[in-house]
């Protein structure tokens, strides 16, 4: 396959991926830092480079509703949003998942109001973590682009039929210029294939009603099916990631490990901070410290068994969350990772750091402090505070 | 002229803070802010006024108005203002919203605040695009107008038609005062100031909902010099959105 390397921001990479996918319908509403994605896409529409029906709706609630209508009508439909936009469409986000519509949505992660803030954290997508959507998190623009293309295949797989959020850190990834290797158009077209929905509206041979009232008679069974689809999504994500890797040289799994095999302590984190952690690991490894990283890609479905297997040999693990869950304990990624390790006969000591809220920079010194804290825990055999805050003024 | 005959004809409004505006050069938001502040000063309302800031270029309005302010989520300012006014009926409550807020994501809130006849004042800045996010098409964008999401110009077939919010709300029985003004020259600015003052007077009379739609420029996203943008505002924008008083049920007129 012919590929080319370009300098793109995360938003440009997503918009370019969307152009290569050439969905039937895109409906969207401007919101920082996502706006650029659909704005760039609108120029592709104006230039006749895509066949997409592009709808400039009056709100995100209508954006999601419009793509739900389009997907129910048998179309490949996409949108993009951030923060308040995702919160505003919350009602219909659940409906998209429960109607089993394989919509793909890019989310440039941005802190939720209030106070109002436009910078990165994961409170927006964490707020939708139990909406029934698959969530893939991206470390950089390359991963955002690759995740978007794979998301189409994952969402539309007959065993899955669930919508997918492709998450990229607002501004840090959405607006920063990076080198990105693009697939050629023909490859993407072939990889995503032609969408043939199992059921859709106005299929004269198979008339259907979508989303009707569903009470104590069948609601529970439909939710059970939805839960099963999310379980099955795990294998599909792995299979699609392997196939993509075989064809592009960039393979993907449920998570990525870095210097983890012989590590004694490790950080678990998602998205752009994983890049910062890798740089810190290189420095600490040069000093002889056995430190490692697990970067989670698939938060939904959450790979419980695989995480336990990957982390079981460690002495201490710090889970870094770019969101708080205000449950008076730990943040979402920590609570779930900790639960995943519960059945291990011997568990590492686990602590949680909540970091980077509202775009607070998480630099290498902060990551280095986490590894130093982990080393101290191992040395002293004292856990200390389980839930900690990184880089905040107390 | 002797010192004894000097007369102060203009000053800096008390109802504005000393914070410099962040608005782009040539943008008329600053003039609209000043007109609101002058109206509050003239009516002696500053100490009992609560403003509700919206989302968009005017998101920082709370930095400029020298009164208590609350920030609302995108489009929700009239609903937030309703809550404030119901619990503090003696306060003067106003929202300051753009067209990307009021005429788009916030259409439900503005229509129903007006229909209920909520005794609040709405300052509605219409510059025919989403300024803050970089000039995307708004519901108020004129046919043929180029924006970053309609690079070849708005086409009715694909993008629908511009919404005349003032006329739409004027069909309701709740509003006491609805006017549209423009800021394209000094005379228009003086008229705009009168309308804004009148809207606050309507609230003082407890006459019901009041709104002034202020036609405003966006030189940056229109791709025009400030002077050219003012000409465009007068000759093109105000042609589609005609200035004038659409509703006046205040006592002064009725009595």
What keywords describe this structure?
heterodimer; A: 394 residues; alpha/beta; Rossmann fold; seven-stranded mixed sheet; six-stranded mixed sheet; 13 helices; 40% helix; B: 255 residues; 11 helices; 38% helix; globular
Topology:
The complex is a heterodimer of chains A (394) and B (255).
Chain A: E1 4-9, H1 10-21, E2 25-28, H2 35-46, E3 53-56, H3 60-72, E4 77-81, H4 83-88, H5 90-98, E5 104-109, H6 123-126, E6 134-138, H7 141-156, E7 164-169, E8 177-182, H8 185-192, H9 219-248, E9 255-258, E10 265-269, H10 273-286, E11 291-296, E12 298-300, H11 304-311, E13 316-321, H12 332-340, E14 349-355, H13 364-380, E15 387-390
Parallel strand pairs in A: 2-3, 2-4, 4-5, 5-7, 6-7, 10-11, 10-13, 13-14, 14-15
Antiparallel strand pairs in A: 1-8, 6-12, 9-11
Helix pairs in contact in A: 1-2, 1-7, 3-5, 7-9, 10-13, 11-12
Chain B: H1 29-42, E1 49-53, H2 61-64, E2 68-71, H3 77-87, E3 92-98, H4 99-105, H5 107-115, E4 121-126, H6 156-159, H7 165-170, E5 175-182, H8 186-204, E6 209-215, H9 219-222, H10 226-240, E7 244-248, H11 251-254
Parallel strand pairs in B: 1-2, 1-3, 3-4, 4-6, 5-6
Antiparallel strand pairs in B: 5-7
